[in-house]
Amino acid sequence: MKYRTQKIAYWFFASALVLLSLQLVYGFIMGFARVGYDTLHPWIPFNTARAVHTNLLVVWLLCGFMGAAHFIIPEEAERELEWPWLAHAQLISLLVVGVIAIGCYHFNIWEGRKFLEIPRPLDWLVVVNVLAFLANIGVTLWRGTRHTTTSLVLYMGLLFAALLYLPGMLQVDNQTVDSFYRWWVVHLWVEGVWELIMGGILAYLLIKLTGVDREVIEKWLYIIVGLTFLSGILGTGHHYYFIGTPRYWLWIGGIFSALEPLAFLGMAIFAIAMSKKGGRRHPNRIALTWSLGCAVMAFVGAGFLGMAHTLPSVNRFTHGTLVTAMHGHMAFWGAYAMIVLAMIAYALPLLTGRRLWDTPIANWAFWTSNIGMTAMTGALAVAGITQVNLERRIGLDFLAVQKEIEMHFVGFLLAAALFTLGIALYIVHFCRHGLPTDEALSRAEEDLPADWVPVAK
Amino acid sequence: MSASASGRFTQAERFRQCKPGRLPLRTNPRRALPVGTGEGAGKECPRPGSIDRGQGVVGHGCQAVLSDETFKQREGTMLSKSQARLFFLGGTGLFGAAFLALTVDSMRQIPALTHEDRLTEPVARGKRIWEDNNCMGCHTLFGEGAYYAPELTQVVQRRGKPWIAMFLRDPEKMFPGERRMVKYDFTQEQIGDLIAFLEWCGGVNLQGFPPEPPLRALMRPAAVTSAGGTPAPEIYQTICAACHSVGGAGGVVGPALDEVHRRKTREEMLVWIEDPQKIKPGTAMPLIEMTPAQREEIVDYLLSLAATPAPAAPKPQTPAETYE
Predict the structure, then answer these.
(1) Is residue B251 part of a domain?
(2) Is residue B97 situated within a structural domain?
(3) Hey, is the C-beta of A164 within 8 angstroms of any chain B C-beta?
(4) B29: nearest CB among A216, A250, A279
(5) Integer Cα distance of B47 and B56 in angstroms
(6) Which residues in chain B have Cβ-Cβ distances shorter than 8 Å to A218?
(7) Which residue range forms the structural domain that includes residue B22?
(8) pLDDT tens for residues B176-194?
(9) Which of B202, B227, B244 is the last residue before a domain boundary?
């Protein structure tokens, strides 16, 4: 850590992990409801649990992205954060708005549009909050001595994420138009600008952890985000197949969403190639493990599993079934949860001055959570494919099919328990670092042990 | 931005961060770069491979180590950073513009595809009820939602309005012991609005979604398609068939009714339908409000089944059996 104000990142990361824990609780509520144990139904019906689960995901990921930005931008811009007080105020207000929104869901108060359930008045508070964040980061960057590609890509990602939130606030009577613009937010976030954020963070981590020349990494960063937008923008069409839009979206969406895995494949190859190319063995091995894991799991979850049901002829049958949930779980985990966890793993020793890199707990956390998530995805895949065959291909009744696939959710819950163990270990690892301190400030090769030998020739 | 206008690095920029006497950062020790010609060339680096904290434009950079040729070779073997940037900005601009154009065209076509002329005030109110209660948090509509409860795109066409109205008054009554839905206490008018909204949704051109199950025909024996002497009355088709089956077609919540005429007399049936709870307290069958004439119609239909000789495959198939 080189700048005092980078410490703010710690509080964003800590909040993100608290929200993640809460997300898991609501996930379990839904999992148990699916195997018939819906005792909480009178207080937390499925739609409440579902809205809380997905909204917490979005909020904790945004929290993690903001934390990452507060850590990366001062270092890239080579100056302190412009208004540290604003960053604190913004984090607190974000959490307050989030908690109020989640509270509302328990009292049947919401906007009721998938992923955008926040009641409209609170939408405006979110906008103000994000503007404050962007102003703070933006002015820091603007007045900084150095404008790097990594920081610009990261900032552009955050800026466009904020702008794209606005179409989601449109109020229209036509369900098709409503859905059309809802995807501008949801799709263009997760398959567009969030990938910019992810790419920016990944590039930063690779520069730091592998030591490969910044010019080389940033060149490939441009190619990858270029591929993302090339496929992702028109790839929005895969949400427009069956919602009442013109027929041409079937082939436009089909072609371009079939190209979407390219960006993720590029990202995976890029991360692995850079880590091989880097002659440097950074001692924070676990951060590199998370970074590479992120690139690989993002390709499997978001790229490959997305591709598996994106073609119109397949999607006609899988659309609106658990196959989507299967893809969703691993995509969000691989692409966005893991990049945030990688960033935390990298930043934590620098913020707190404790060199707890590569401990057994940290390694167990990585493997347990990833194996757990892979098994969860497998259980959802079996449930989803069975649902497609029985309900969509044979034409059996919805509830009868749900009974048939109940047993897969028992497996799902077991896998989720393993996953939760991994996250718990990660949080233990996080807590063992203690709080951030100014003593960790240094400008030289501070972060590496004195006896560390760099490259083995 | 470190790059000059041309996108290439100027001599000054390239060496901005260099300190004399260091070798360049070797991205790969096995492929060390040739030493350049400038000042400091050939000198030993005191800490070979030492860490560049990222300030350098060219790695940890070393004065005069990279000749122009080497630099170009290195920067532009496949493609340069400025070309990469051009690819990103150009691609994004081009496909962003295409997306906006298609959006404009979609907005032009959507009114016709969704029959916007039928989008009346009750439909709009129904949509707000749909959103205010987060129905998408369990159900799917146009295939979008949460996969916990049935797809509702063509529910009005599938179930009929009377059944939905009755269901919404007390969802658990219609599916006792099954997956639960919140009882919302909607007014009669709100239920009407919701049905109007769902009916409008059912009329939207969804480009063939939801698809007709391609294997359905293979799973049903042909013989049972013509069960019953007289066609079932509408009230039977919309309400009773949701739970009961005749000739293998219908719901599986209640018992099949093919043979009910053997077990019950006309009067017994009429009394039973009027208030099942009175005859057998605790039965899963709800009290369904209908007129005496409707009850007569149902019983007439069930008795007419006696006139038909039992079909070749009379045993009603539950979905589970069909599957196995």
Answers:
(1) yes
(2) no
(3) no
(4) A279
(5) 16
(6) 81
(7) 8-76
(8) 778 899 999 999 999 999 9
(9) B202
As for how many domains chain B has, the answer is 3
CB neighbours of residue B57 within 10 Å = 19
Same domain? B192 vs B248: no
B288 within some domain: yes
Interchain pair B216, A316: CB under 8 A: no
What ipTM does the predicted assembly reach? Answer: 0.91
Of B92, B111, B137, the CB nearest to A50: B137
Q: Report the gap between the CA of B119 and the closest CA in chain A (Å).
A: 8
Q: Given a cut of 50, is residue A444 above it in pLDDT?
A: no
- CATH number for the domain spanning B272: value is 2.60.40.420
The CATH code of the domain that includes B179 is 1.10.760.10
Three-state DSSP at B19 gives strand
A240 contacts in B (CB within 8 Å)?
A: 106
User: Tell me: the pLDDT tens digits for A384-405?
Assistant: 999 999 999 998 889 889 999 9
Closest CA to A393 of A449, A341, A318: A318
A320 touches chain B (CB under 8 A): yes
Contacts of A230 in chain B (CB under 8 A): 91-92, 95
B194 & B242 share domain? no
pLDDT in tens, B122-171: 999 999 999 999 999 999 999 999 999 999 999 998 888 888 998 998 88
Q: Do A242 and B124 touch (CB under 8 A)?
A: no
Phi and psi, residue A93, nearest 5°: -65, -35
Taking CB atoms and an 8 Å limit, are B146 and A46 in contact across chains?
Answer: yes
Q: Is A65 on the interface with B (CB under 8 A)?
A: no
> CA distances (Å), B123 to each of A81, A117, B117, B191, B195, in order?
51, 21, 11, 11, 8
From B219's Cα to the closest Cα of chain A, the distance in A is 7
Specify whether the CB–CB gap between A359 and B286 falls below 8 A.
Answer: no
User: Which residue matches tokens 């404009």?
Assistant: B104
Residue ranges and CATH numbers for the domains of chain A are 4-440 (1.20.210.10)
Q: Which residue of A has its CA nearest to B137?
A: A47
Does residue B237 lie within any of the structural domains? yes
